[in-house]
Amino acid sequence: GRDYSQAEDREIHAQALEALDREKLNAGPFIGGALKAGESPRDVTSPCDRARILGHASEATAEDVDEAIQRAANAQVAWDRAGGAARAVVLRAMGDALEADMDRLIALLCREAGKTLDDGVAEVREAADFCRYYAMLAEQQFGGPEDLIGPAGETNRLVLHGRGVFACISPWNFPLAIFTGQVAAALAAGNAVLAKPAEQTPLVACEAVRQFHKAGLDPDLLALVPGRGETVGAALVNHPGIDGVAFTGGTETAFAINRSIAAREGAIIPFIAETGGLNGMFVDTTALREQVIDDVITSAFGSAGQRCSALRILFIPKANADDFIQRLAGALKTRVIGDPADPSTDIGPVIDAESREILEKHVQRLEKEAKVVARADLPEGAERGDLFAPVIAEIPTPDFLEKEVFGPILHIYRYDPDNLEEVARKLAARGYGLTLGVHSRIDAFAADVMALVPAGNVYVNRSITGAVVGVQPFGGEGLSGTGPKAGGPNSLIRYASEKAISVNIAAQGGDPALLNL
Ligand code: UN1
């Protein structure tokens, strides 16, 4: 692996960016291994520099979706029957292919999604980890029937198999890792996939699909159908040939998909949603100050706050608040904001102008109804792209935020420890339940916070982002998602169906080997 703190490896990164800039990239409907013309072609530009045209992208048509579903359905039966061990071979090859192409993928993540070098490295590794982890689960859980204990004279077995064709709809904030993770999960469980990437990041998705095919996947088992949610997304979730939907993205979009699926005539299909969070971190007076500062800065401003796991509201006891706020403001000033192609950059751009404008509008509200206590400076030339100056603000009530604000804005609420329960209940009442941080050295404090605030992932005395596949299975409750968690032992269950097979062996002369299903 590379060590990008070393000059040689940084040089390789710079060369990969240059090489990518000389390429002309294309994304569009990618069906049966062929890139199609699609419709509504447009330029893909970089969030770091809107004048930089990375390539072109087109959208899938309704006919493209039909064709891809047809091919997927035909290919899926053999893929399912091949079993988990055969599927694991392809998924492992995909993990290796991603790692082998790491330099180019990091460059592409930087240009198309505005990822810093550290985030790019982490993202390629995470994508490869998903492939390998789900390969392992495919072998363990889809390796053949499990014998159940039943009456004499029959065999009873339970077997997991794919549901059919899955639609995987992924976000722009992890355009490689979440895209690959969803696809790998659906494939591992024996499904074929139509994947719709976020509108902002079609190029990296197209690259991932190419890698899957190169890794030995039958191209009919994975099609890319790029486009808008209102067109392609709607076509997918309403299509009678789609047997399940996996979605990661905003809570509002999840509501819309849920309604569409519920309204489908003659179909009941699973919906796997991983959505937003209104993530809090509760600090008490026993917490280690330096640790808190470090973890808050990482959790709130890492990846420009564009993670669903990111810290949104920090709860500090009022006795320590002034000191903490001053230190956090100082720490924010040390962050380097700018072009993510520069390895020393800590915070890159937000994804697009729309996102930047939503955040600026939120800052206006904070200026009026709350108190902005620190704002970072933007470097020269920031207007070329969508850089947004990170903010720390103090909010007057624990329920000041109604919903997720997706970007580098940290809200702080100073609480009275006597009112901890009331404060925590107000946060919980918003209905989200993704990540939760606790900084304390008192068991009872951590236990109280955990009992009061719903969360799928609780982090104690550490940062609340960067869940590692297989180590911290990731996903929320309530408005934050349906589960199962990504990168955990139960990840594949809802992508699969369970079949119980009972054979009367008395009818075959007591010989269980005759019909050994
Ligand atoms: C997301 O931001 O949509 O733990 C989910 C983390 C990541 C979050 C990914 N796995 O920070």
UniProtKB/TrEMBL annotation:
Catalytic machinery residues: E274, C308
Aldehyde dehydrogenase domain mapped to chain residues: 42-500
Highest taxon, organism lineage: Bacteria
Homology family: In the N-terminal section; belongs to the proline dehydrogenase family. In the C-terminal section; belongs to the aldehyde dehydrogenase family.
Biological role: Oxidizes proline to glutamate for use as a carbon and nitrogen source.
Protein name as catalogued: Bifunctional protein PutA
Species this chain originates from: Brevundimonas abyssalis TAR-001
Residue range from the parent sequence: 519 to 1035 of 1035
